Automatic annotation (TrEMBL):
UniProt keyword list: Transferase
One Pfam short name: Acetyltransf_3
Organism: Flavobacterium cucumis
Domain of life: Bacteria
Name of the protein described by the UniProt record: Diamine N-acetyltransferase
MF term (GO), any: acyltransferase activity, transferring groups other than amino-acyl groups
Positions of transmembrane segments: none
Length: 176
């Protein structure tokens, strides 16, 4: 896969040098509630994951890309295609921006647009979906901006701070 380039950011494959960046994100407890993680990841496990990151999406059934700034080349987030299903031409999509300073800056929008274009034009997917917590207004706004529609609610799906919260399923169908 070639680098996916936008006006302000580009998406690239993970590199061994991303170990500390991924370690920081995966062990950030505020991200755990959106990623269904409950325990920290060791550097050893992340290193093993990075050693297998060369697998293509057809082999691994997922694709994780670093979101990097064009001007500084700094990695500021991750965007994933997961549960890749080539038979039914669909995949889930998830995104995380690593710091509060980079949130609401348009980085997530540009990254999501690049991944949507890649998924529909390169991978020839028919649909993308996203699982979003009912209180995650930033993600709801981001995904609906690109035409994702809420198609279902999973009641009391996630336990966050000892309370159950709904998770919503959003879907974008490629009608081309």
């Amino acid at each position: 896969m070639t680098t996916l380039k936008g006006n302000n950011i580009y998406l690239r494959a993970l590199e061994p040098e991303d170990l500390e960046f991924i370690y920081k994100i995966e062990n950030n407890e505020s991200v755990w509630e959106v990623s269904n993680t409950q325990t920290p990841y060791s550097r050893f496990l992340i290193r093993q994951y990075l050693e297998n990151a060369h697998q293509d999406i057809y082999e691994a059934k997922q694709l994780r890309l670093a979101i990097c700034l064009n001007d500084t080349f700094e990695a500021v987030g991750l965007i994933d295609l997961f549960d890749f299903d080539p038979k039914n031409n669909r995949a889930g999509v998830g995104i995380v921006i690593s710091s509060e300073a980079n949130k609401n800056s348009g980085i997530g929008s540009e990254a999501l647009q690049l991944v949507i274009n890649y998924a529909f034009n390169q991978l020839q997917l028919h649909q993308l979906y996203a699982n979003i917590g009912s209180k995650n207004e930033i993600s709801i706004s981001l995904f609906t901006k690109f035409g994702f529609q809420k198609i279902g609610v999973k009641k009391d799906w996630n336990k966050i701070n000892n309370q159950y919260e709904d998770e919503m399923l959003y879907q974008l169908i490629n009608h081309i």
